[in-house]
Amino acid sequence: MLVASNRGPVSYQVEEDGSLTAKRGGGGLVSGLSAIGPDAGALWVCSALSDGDREAVRRGVGEDGVRMLDVPADVHADAYNGIANSVLWFVHHMLYQTPLEPVFDAEFRRQWASYERFNRAFAEALAEEAAEGAVAIVQDYHLTLVPGMLRELRPDLRIGHFSHTPWAPPEYFRMLPDDVAGQILRGMLGADRLGFLTHRWADAFTACCEAFAGGLGGTRVGVHGLGADADFLRRRSHEADVDERMAALREEIGTGPDGGARRTIVRVDRTELSKNIVRGLLAYRQLLEDRPEWRERVVHVAFAYPSRQDLAVYRDYTAEVQRLATEINARYGTPGWTPVVLHVKDDFARSLAAYRLADVALVNPVRDGMNLVAKEVPVVSDEGCALVLSREAGAHEELGEDAITVNPYDVVGTARALHEALSMPAAERAERSKRLAAAATALPPGRWFLDQLDALRG
Ligand code: G6P
């Protein structure tokens, strides 16, 4: 069994003394696939992403069951930053802003050639590693051409592909140049079976194939809604380092005028345009404006961890998040109250601490394949939390009933939802949170992966 993804389970960093330290990769894809574990006998083929990773490849350092591909750094940069994150991510999350974007010019064509080369490197590595009749599951928008390429090299294999993102509807997808759109769809349709996180994304893909590729051919399409790993989260969130961070966070949050702990609205994201952090802050500002009774009594705990910082648009977005948080604190803050507690340094233990303290979780992406934070907070929160959830997150398909639903563009509506969430009676909140946690853990990562394997083999 083989798995292929751009980001792998670990990433290496060269320390000052020349040694290599390993760190777990971030994002939903790695969370889902990490359940496979070293005992499954799988080989995970991934990219060398950092200088540390390339050094690890050169030194022959690595984990059992992981093969890192050292594609030339400029080819990888074109494929990952240029095509995958600046074009395909933007198409599927519908993030483009006319009149400036998109422009498919000669530079795009050059980068597309690198994307093809990058995909070919994966197809060749998989073809080389796979035993006769093996199963290969290819992941995400970085590797859409791999199934078709691999099919040509190794017709004996069972090939799957899984998308961790939304899929764009045909009217949006067709903004890609026709030949590129056709290559992507044909590449995906090289698989025996394609997996998506929700029916909505699977239907959009099917509609694109009907509109631009003459249908699905013999390829099957299935839905597997990745859930949270309850056992891992409950255990991990009660370890000593999480307790320490809870104590530190409680200090930062402080007590309200009545002497009781302040309410917390928690969000944890990669600093990512689709996560809609800026409109979340605008909604919080609106709440403080419309409902002054919450001033001094609530804190917005926002963790916005750096992501894809090679791209200017992500750097600008990060700066805007920081600017707005500072502005809100300057406008409303008092000597004993910081309205927004913003942290930007990635710290998983601190995220879990915030989950435990959360009264309200704010998950308001403009579009999101699933969003695991929406599923994790109800599992971990000590007293149960109210979930304010965007109707555009894949998780809404499973959690919508017990969440407070928002249109992510509607800042006033989101402010109203935050007020409703903060005002929810404790008993109702605990009840709903329990049901959310049950729905969120219905398909834990191990099961999620095995279901795909069974369906592919079957
Ligand atoms: C999303 C994508 C994953 C990606 C993750 C983190 O969840 O679907 O493929 O790994 O974001 O993004 P990054 O660019 O850091 O790998």
Automatic annotation (TrEMBL):
InterPro entries the record matches: Glyco_trans_20
Pfam families xrefs: Glyco_transf_20
GO cellular component: cytosol
Gene Ontology BP term (one): trehalose biosynthetic process
GO molecular function: alpha,alpha-trehalose-phosphate synthase (UDP-forming) activity; trehalose-phosphatase activity
SUPFAM superfamilies with a match to the protein in the record: UDP-Glycosyltransferase/glycogen phosphorylase (SSF53756)
Family that this chain belongs to: Belongs to the glycosyltransferase 20 family.
Name of protein: Alpha,alpha-trehalose-phosphate synthase
